[in-house]
Design goal:
The protein has 762 residues and is an alpha+beta fold. The chain folds into 3 domains: 55-254, Alpha-Beta Complex (Penicillin-binding protein 2a (Domain 2)); 258-596, DD-peptidase/beta-lactamase superfamily (Beta-lactamase, 3-Layer(aba) Sandwich); 609-728, Trypsin Inhibitor V, Chain A (2-Layer Sandwich), CATH 3.30.10.20. The strands form 12 sheets. Strands 4, 5, 6, 7, 12, 20 and 21 form a 7-stranded mixed sheet that branches. The chain is elongated. Residues 727-762 have low confidence and may be disordered.
């Protein structure tokens, strides 16, 4: 018979066991309460780490604005795209999917919108989705192509993804550097990119121009918010926020005038499309203050997309040097006037000049006979400069070159400014420097030197930063003011130089005639410089292989703007010369800029006109007499007799001194076509019935048959026309080259052959 168990004994055992466990638990809780530790870890610290949260307050990068405060570069809201590949992102029993379910369709969709190659994108997504299904990966990102997405693009992608049932794509807000004007002084402004710092955090870094030079000023300092939260991350009602405000980057206000800069960009684009030059550069300054109001170049790039950046890294006006060509003659003339050696009406024999065993020639190779020094300057005579250099003294001349700021940095607030090299070791180098060959300069140095001529002898330092403003303290940190850096010439000298520069543009034979403006009087100097060939060590040869430039100012009586323009190796059509694209840039930009600045135009004399009558049926002698009384000239096509046709028609308005063609019968004798316009020649051909063959455009300079000859309708007559630019411009002869670093002096150690004897610059 079995023994029966004692229920009371079992119950007592259970009480003892549970009591012991409770006692141990109580002792443990008491220990934790006293020591605030468990397993060697401080529980308060662990609790704080778990429930104290920190949120970053993003600092804005400082904006870059123009002189009126209009934005050129600023931070704006954008989005970063990523794809969720972990199926845990989609709640169970949810009809809507929050992770990528079709990597093939998703890859096709993203390849289209992000402009990525679909094949590697599909492979990446398929691998990521496979990892996500195992729980080893949550999301995948798409590099720089998946960043900086604008609001409109985001909206477009979301709507299309919903239509195509593309799932798992998410957008995260972030800051993006925005350049609202696109291509706009791009090398001056620079660009920025997002980089990872040593702590693994992303920050925006300036990479060129103002963005790079003032990166430490533009960059801000992120702030933070610390708060208590529950285990789900929600802020507790009793929580106190600890806020460290973000310190936003400072705003940089430039001297750039946005309207003038747009004039520059539009003109550069138009000339680039028409002439496809290798390079172009434009710099405009206010000569009274030194403020740079515009700066542009081609090639250029879009700071938003960086398209075109690989074609040109240098700011041509600041970082690159060129030979100035004949624009340098402006400063040689200034030195001669200041030294009292300028006698504009004295004469010299143009054509060629010899120094020791070296010979220089004027651009047309033969000169213009004996001419005055003023005419020599208007025609850009190298020989005239050589004689002026003799009178100044070549070493004294180099002192003026130094006083005008050549061979040293201007001190612009931009990185990598070049100095240029003044070739002055040998007499021959000082000679070629006087007309702009051998010595190298920056466009920035050219406009700085020209401010002395435009500003009563006071040379102003060019600058680009107007002020730097701290938005956190609401105060101006830097306020730049005009800075006079020298007085190389007197006010009287500057006035005389301006008069000579005006005559370069206004004189019938002046090389600057294409640069005249309709509403303002211009003064300036043209230049044609040879380009060193890095492969041969000599200058490039061949038509068009030159740097064409113009350094001008307007209005010449009180210049408000100084402008340097250069065009390198343009593609020219038949009848065009190197100054054509340069003049197109200068005249377009300068005229618009002066009107924008409300500079009062010159008073244009109204041209008086007179209406002509019908002379058909009148004798040619009577018609000729009536036209003479009206101060018009009659040109009779045929013999004396009755007028059968006329040009222009009756009631046409003509300026005094104009010609009227009167057609009669009988033999036709050739007139003097010199200076006739193409339109007039065409009218004569139509009325006369002669075989007149026209070559070129502009105005007649030559004709194959002499004036007064009788000619039959079948006999051809050739008339050659030239534009004003062609009449007064010459290219240097292409067969003459000089190695740049050796100059034109005795130092020829870098040359494989002796230097050619003759050098020319127009």
């Amino acid at each position: 018979m079995k023994k029966r168990s004692n229920p009371k004994l079992g119950a007592r055992s259970m009480y003892i066991i549970y009591g012991a466990l409770f006692l141990l638990l109580a002792l443990r809780m008491l220990s934790i309460q006293i020591t605030d530790e468990a397993r060697g870890e401080n529980l308060s610290t662990m609790t704080e780490e778990k429930y104290v949260r920190e949120s970053t307050i993003q600092a804005r990068r400082g904006s870059i604005v123009d002189r009126e405060g209009e934005p050129i570069a600023e931070d704006t809201l954008s989005y970063k795209l990523f794809a969720v590949v972990n199926k845990e992102a989609t709640p169970k029993n949810s009809e809507k999917k929050y992770h990528v379910t079709d990597p093939v369709a998703t890859a096709s969709f993203l390849a289209k919108h992000l402009e990525l190659d679909e094949k590697p994108l599909r492979k990446m997504l398929e691998e990521a989705v496979a990892e996500g299904e195992k729980g080893n990966r949550w999301q995948v990102e798409f590099g720089k192509e998946g960043r900086g997405i604008g609001h409109e693009k985001k909206k477009e992608m979301q709507e299309e993804a919903e239509q195509l049932n593309i799932t798992g794509l998410e957008f995260l807000e972030e800051k993006k550097r925005f350049y609202p004007n696109g291509i706009f002084a791009s090398h001056l402004i620079g660009y920025s990119s997002i980089e990872e710092d040593e702590d693994g955090k992303l920050r925006t870094v300036g990479k060129m121009g103002i963005e790079q030079a003032f990166d430490n000023v533009l960059v801000g300092k992120n702030g933070s918010i610390n708060y208590d939260s529950d285990s789900w991350g929600y802020i507790l009602p009793s929580s106190e926020k600890m806020v460290t405000p973000a310190e936003h980057g400072s705003q940089i206000r430039l001297t750039i005038d946005q309207t003038i800069q747009n004039f520059i960009e539009d003109a550069l684009t138009e000339v680039e499309e028409q002439y496809t030059p290798e390079k172009m550069s434009v710099v405009i300054v206010n000569p009274k203050t030194g403020e740079i109001v515009g700066m542009g170049q081609r090639p250029t790039f879009n700071p938003e997309t960086l398209e075109g950046l690989d074609e040109s890294w240098l700011n041509e006006a600041v970082e690159n040097t060129v030979e100035p060509g004949s624009t340098m003659k402006m400063f040689t003339l200034a030195a001669a006037i200041e030294e009292g050696k300028w006698r504009p009406n004295d004469t010299f024999m143009s054509g060629q000049y010899s120094l020791f065993d070296k010979t220089i020639r004027d651009a047309n190779r033969v000169g213009w006979g004996r001419i005055s020094y003023l005419e020599g300057f208007e025609r850009s005579s190298n020989v005239g400069m050589a004689y002026l250099l003799e009178s100044i003294g070549d070493k004294r001349f180099i002192e003026y070159v130094d006083e005008f700021g050549f061979g040293k940095k201007v001190g612009i607030e931009l990185p990598n400014e070049a100095e240029g090299v003044v070739m002055d070791t040998y007499p021959s180098e000082r000679l070629t420097t006087s007309y702009g060959q051998g010595t190298t300069v920056t466009p920035l140095q050219m406009v700085q030197a020209a401010t002395a001529i435009a500003n009563d002898g006071k040379m102003m330092q060019p600058y680009i930063i107007q002020e730097i403003y701290d938005p956190n303290e609401e105060k101006v940190l830097v306020q730049n003011e005009p800075n006079q850096v020298g007085t190389p010439i007197s006010k009287e000298t500057s006035e005389e130089v301006k008069n000579a520069l005006a005559s370069v543009v206004s004189a019938p034979h002046g090389t600057g005639r294409p640069f005249a403006l309709t509403s303002y009087e211009v003064g300036g100097k043209t230049g044609t410089a040879e380009i060193p060939d890095p492969e041969t060590g000599y200058y490039m040869s061949g038509p068009g292989n030159y740097l064409y430039s113009f350094l001008g100012m307007a209005p010449i009586d009180d210049p408000q703007l100084v402008m340097y323009v250069s065009v390198q190796r343009p593609t020219l059509s038949a009848g065009e010369v190197g100054s054509t694209p340069v003049a197109k840039l200068f005249t377009t930009i300068m005229e618009k800029s002066l009107k924008h600045l409300t500079v009062v135009p010159k008073e244009v004399e109204e041209v008086e006109t007179i209406a002509i009558d019908s002379y058909v049926g009148t004798s040619s002698s009577t018609a000729s007499e009536q036209l003479r009384e009206k101060q018009l000239q009659a040109i009779v096509i045929g013999e004396e007799g009755e007028v059968t046709e006329q040009y222009p028609a009756k009631k046409s308005e003509l300026a005094f001194g104009s010609s009227v063609l009167l057609k009669t019968s009988g033999d036709v004798r050739i007139p003097d076509f010199t200076s006739w316009s193409k339109k007039m020649v065409l009218a004569y051909r139509s009325l006369s019935g002669l075989d007149i063959r026209i070559e070129g455009d502009g105005y007649v300079t030559e004709q194959s048959l002499s004036e007064g000859m009788s000619v039959s309708p079948s006999e051809p007559i050739v008339v050659r026309l030239q534009t004003p630019e062609q009449m007064f411009q010459f290219d240097p002869p292409v067969e003459e080259v000089v190695e740049e670093s050796a100059g034109t002096g005795d130092d020829q150690e870098l040359l494989e052959e002796p230097l050619p004897e003759e050098n020319v610059t127009n």
